[in-house]
Design brief:
- It comes from Zeugodacus cucurbitae (Melon fruit fly).
- It contains 23 helices and 21 strands.
- The chain has about 675 residues and is an alpha/beta fold.
- The protein folds into four domains: about 280 residues, Spore Coat Polysaccharide Biosynthesis Protein SpsA, Chain A, CATH 3.90.550.10; about 160 residues, no CATH class; about 100 residues, no CATH class; about 45 residues.
- Strand 20, helix 20 and strand 21 form a beta-alpha-beta unit.
- Helix 1 packs antiparallel against helix 23, helix 15 packs across helix 19 and helix 20 runs parallel beside helix 21.
- It starts with a helix and ends with a helix.
Amino acid sequence: MRIQRKWGRMLKNNWKRLRRRRLLIVFGIVVLSSIFLVTRKNLGMKQSYCEPIDVVYTWVNGSDPLFIESARRYNPNYDPARFDDKNELRYSLRSLEKYAPWVRHVYIVTNGQIPHWLDLSFEKVTVVPHELLTPKPELLPTFSSSAIETFIHRIPNLSQRFLYLNDDIFLGAPLYPEDLYTHSEGVRIYQAWMVPDCADDCPWTYIGDGACDRHCNIAKCQYDGGDCNSFDSDKSEENIMEHNVNENKSVKIITPSPLNSTTHVEIRHFPLRKKFRNKKHSTQRNGSHFRELVLHKNLSTLAELRHIVDNYNNQLKSNSQTKESVLSTQASDQIMKRFEEGMEKTSKNESSKDIYSHSLINTNMLLNRFYGFKARNVLAHVGFLLDRNIINDMQQKFSKGIDVTISNRFRSTNDLQFAFIYYSFLMSERSTLTVEEVFDEFDTDDSHTWSDREVRTFLARMYPLPLDWSAVRFFEEVVSNCSRDLDMPSRNGYYEYTTLVYERYEDSNVPTITRQLVAQCRLLAEALETNFATRTKYKYNINPKRAIHNNFMMLTSNITDVVDGFDKIRRNPRKFNCINDNLEPLLAEDNELIRHLLEDFYLSFFPRRSSYELQFEYRNRFTTWQDYQRWRRRKRAALVVGYAASVILILFIIRYICIHKTKIARRYVQSL
């Protein structure tokens, strides 16, 4: 009995202590549980040194009768064959899981439809309807892929960089993040063929090249980029010299004055490098560039002159695909106005291929207006790595064209091709550094002054090599004159600049070149701004080997061609493989056979079910996103009720124990 009473008192005292410290105990339990869960999650995650990349698909089931009825409500001539679903998304996801398991999450953007085979309980996949993303819900439903692509970056919780894939693309080889982006080179760009010609025998290399092409002087070609408007005036201002070469040929050169045949050219200016030419200088005609070229040559015979002309013409041909000449604002506005008036007369009854080609031309015209006339390349049929911030900047710059694209329920000739304009924007945007920032790049020792070695680096990047001594003398004169005219003090603000002995060559007479001196010296500042201040804003790397990472096949109703195309892909599967549907709607029997051939082709690569799919014997109970959301709301409500009932029951038990604690303790002691 004495031992029982002793144990009873001990239990009673311990119970009192627990009651006084119950909040501390509860807090400790919560903290330990949180630490356990976080540690378990971190241990379960694979270590990765790359930033997360999500994948976004756009998908539609064009075989759905409700979808066909909705489309024909807005377009009675709607062709359902173009949106026919052939299970491409299922096999694309299988290839993604096999060859790109590093993908963090997959988002499937739909009009509200859900694939019947998709496992919605899988944590790495989410279906996102258009109504959650579009900035203009009143324009729904939309049946244009161009319009849908303008708002896929608005998906909640989407990674900063994401891979956009069409459902007709599948992976045929391991894909790594380095195939899409590297920190040193930026995003990798895979290009294909050039933008279609704006007219017959009128490629984009002819537009805005400084020569008037009469057959290109039409609205579709932006009136030859204004070349024909100023051709006559330019011709009258220049003296045209014609020299007979032989009986049938002649060489015509444009030159402002007779040439001065000297044996030495004294350099008395800082050169303007074409690579960093700004808009102010890019409006110069090719003729003026030719005159500058001739003036700096040592000419004495007609043969030398003819040699220069031939080299210059070859240079024009080689650079015609990369040069960027910017129209003046007034001329550009006039061209765009006339083009828009001409486009209003374009027929609307065109095939999807014609619509795609015309939308590419329309996009290229818009790019010409902002970045100058240039022959651009269309993107290959691959996955596109997109950046959300760059998309926002791009859409802000081309807001009018984006609004027009969104307003089109079906694909139209005045659409903007999303991937084409995105990568063209990425490659064309420029950022401008200040003179001080450029100065600091040459100031490698961070002394806030330029040493003779740093001056040598500056001159080597400014002038052609080997460096002529006159260039060095000219630089010394400019610096000496600016230092004397500006009367630079030895003490500037809080810095006192000193020229160390090892920073000067033995015969150097150059004064101390400070950042302030360079910024206030007009000639030096203009040289830095013109040649070094303009940079590409975004990093990118164009893959020089085209078609090495992608296969493209057009799925037609010709069974022989289809089988041959499948075998070619089987023989050499690449990272990205695209099978574009172009079946003839009238050949129903052949199309059905081709569907089975396509299914068999996919199964030869990916016969196993992926984690994104349900078991073969199961079928998704939800056909639309709205049904799925209603079920989720009911499920959440049931969970809330269940959790609330559990909490109430636990509280009731605790209260009962607190009220009858003495009786419970007595029974426990008696049982001992």
